[in-house]
Specification:
N-terminal domain of MutM-like DNA repair proteins, 10 strands, about 20% helix, 2 domains, four-stranded antiparallel β-sheet, globular, about 280 residues, Helicase, Ruva Protein, domain 3
Length: about 280
């Protein structure tokens, strides 16, 4: 699933291509995985007034008070083309297409495509409950910490992926941030003191911002092949910091992969008494 930095970059690219342009052609079509097929032809003649990212949602606004919302899930992506340029993917995979005089924007393989009014956008059941966006110009860390503390019994690795608590973090950053801050992704949020949660959010924001330029995602400080990430996707290989073997296991209701170093991220100490918690989780060695 694209993470917040990917959606943010896509919004920047589309903003440069579409903003201020008048829509000459707009369409969507039935395709596997697309829950609803919005009538995008209503956008023909509309001027593009906004392109923005909200967490993992990409929104395109129009002068007539309509908004196009897309969510990429696991496979979706936005492409920008010059008029007449060949597409890199077949038209049968297009979930939404917008053409202006200057550019053609094509959303491929997205399962969520909606056309919303201003009022519908404001009360949208998903957008209206999003947590503070890590890539927002003014990220509300206080509110993000408050929301995380409201789910004290949830595993930290699951909580960091919950977009209702903090928006923009995906599976890669979840694992990398927990590693860098030496946090146990399997321990409950309650075991992470507030200052550690704040540090984790600050690290997530820093890493997301550092990767806005595109190219391979880097969290280690070097983009050298095979050296760009600390733990994500490295199960069975030695930790770059302590030499312990990295472990990977599916976590949570949606069975998302979590990677961690047992040496650098041991089970959390109780925030209340500094006593090691009894570990009721599966054997992680």
């Amino acid at each position: 699933m694209p993470e917040g930095d990917t959606i943010f970059r896509s919004a920047e690219v589309l903003r440069r291509a579409l903003l201020g342009g008048e829509v000459r052609e707009a369409w969507s079509q039935p395709r596997p995985g697309l829950a609803r097929v919005p009538r995008l032809s209503r956008l023909v003649g509309e001027r593009v007034t906004a392109v923005e990212a909200r967490g993992k949602h990409l929104l395109i606004g129009f002068a007539g008070g309509l908004w196009l919302r897309t969510h990429m899930r696991m496979r979706g992506s936005w492409h920008r083309y010059r008029p007449g340029e060949s597409w890199r993917l077949p038209a049968s995979r297009a979930s939404a297409v917008l053409r202006t005089d200057a550019a053609v924007a094509v959303c491929f393989d997205a399962p969520e495509v909606e056309l919303l009014t201003d009022a519908e956008l404001g009360r949208h059941p998903v957008l209206s409950v999003l947590g503070p966006d890590l890539l927002a110009a003014r990220f509300d860390a206080d509110e993000a910490v408050r929301r995380l503390r409201d789910v004290r019994s949830s595993a930290l690795g699951e909580a960091l992926l919950d977009q209702r608590l903090v928006a923009g973090m995906g599976n890669v950053y979840k694992s990398e941030v927990c590693f860098l801050e030496r946090l146990d992704p399997w321990g409950p949020v309650a075991d992470a003191p507030e200052e550690m949660l704040r540090a984790a959010l600050a690290t997530a924001r820093r890493l997301l911002q550092a990767n806005l330029r595109g190219g391979p995602r880097v969290t280690t400080g070097t983009g050298a092949p095979g050296r760009s990430l600390w733990v994500y996707g490295r199960a069975g290989r030695p930790c770059r910091r302590c030499g312990s073997l990295i472990v990977g296991r599916r976590q949570g209701e949606h069975a998302r992969m979590t990677y961690w170093c047992p040496g650098c991220q041991p089970p959390a100490l109780s925030a209340r008494g500094g006593v090691m918690r009894a570990d009721s989780r599966p054997n992680r060695s």
